[in-house]
Amino acid sequence: MKIICVGRNYAEHARELQNEVPDKPVVFLKPPTALLKDNKPFYYPEWTRELHHEAEVVLRICRQGKYIQEQFAHKYFDQVTVGVDFTARDLQHALKAKGLPWEIAKAFDHSAVVGVFKPLTALPEWERNGIRFSLHKNGKPVQQGDTRDMLFSFGAIIAYCSQFFTLQAGDLIYTGTPPGVGPVEREDRLEGFLEDEKVFDFYIK
Ligand code: MG
Q: How far is ligand 1, taken at its centre, from the CA of residue 168, in Å?
């Protein structure tokens, strides 16, 4: 499986990091070794001093597809959760300043947290009403999102990415983070909510 991530998909978040609002999805990958699930603790790596949380809606791909048209994209994912795209912001800024790829700042071990997946059928009106999600740090909300604020819809992301990468059952797509990204420290507790349901709850160690 592979993990596809979209950056800068919420205009307000792009602005908080002084990035341009993109005219195409900004895409990067994480390897399967990036996955962290089942509420396991995340161990703070020794090579960063600025580890940021980015709470995101995560889609699970359910069938293989290439050059998927946007209007058929909904047939290619059937489960959804909230995850964290952990980012070593200090490394990322240094790499971006040199125009170099971001991978070590984004795709490191356990940088892709996922919660419990829910069938999309549990959110029957999601296309009209959006999906609300949030991240709490130590019991306080730090990020709140609504997928209606995405610059690129799930369908647009799938259509764009599947031109380059064949999507396969089990692949995950991180669909971008709303504003409010910020640092985590050892002993912080992170809880993710899909609508009002808690889908993950883990500690930084
Ligand atoms: Mg992200």
A: 21
